[in-house]
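User: For documentation purposes, I need each entry recorded in a consistent format: the amino acid sequence on its own, followed directly by the corresponding structure tokens. There are two entries in this batch. Please keep commentary to a minimum and don't merge the entries.

Assistant: Recorded as requested. Entry 1:
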Amino acid sequence: MRGLQTDRTAQVVIAGHALVRNLRRGHYELGNDAMPALRVDAAFTELAQAI
């Protein structure tokens, strides 16, 4: 792997990481009705249906 080539790439990766961490912790309404172990999967399913 060549790593992050630009600051923009690093910014996108960091933002994505923060989103997933916050989903797992239940900070968003997405996936809150699912079990904690399945919360991220449920949240992405809800997002896919919305799009």
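Entry 2:
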Amino acid sequence: MRLADGPGVECEIEIAAAPEQVWKVVSDIATSARYSPELQEVEWLDGAREPAVGVCFSGRNHNEHIGEWRTVSRITVLEEPHAYAWEVVRHSDRDGEALARWTYTLEPVAGGAATRLRHGMRIGPGRGPLNDFVEKHPEREEQIIDGRLALLRTGIEATLAGVKAEVEA
């Protein structure tokens, strides 16, 4: 996989609860920080207190291979209780091109008594730090992308497992 392909990863889990119950958890920006091994904390920006399309929040991330970094994300989709998405954007250009896109999609199953929850992300189309790293090591692009996607998959799976445990508790 190459950066030009718009690489991404998506995982899913079935939760024994109605989509409305699952929605309450996944639409809380703090949920990912509770369960992700990489996202450490989040906070609303510009006086926001709840999700709405166009609202931004910041995140602090840590990864033993990459180090620590901060992000700004802009909510792009909020369709209760079906879809929630945000884009990671440049700190200095909140209306600019996405460096990455993150999604949650919820689908009722078992007559609405359960939910299929999908959580995923796609890198790009904007240029981020990963682009710079690949440009320094072009001969290793596929290895770099595969490694990053593997780390992201691990984080997404941990987040989904945490959401399932929280909702079903």
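Summary note for entry 2:
The first helix runs from residue 19 to 26.
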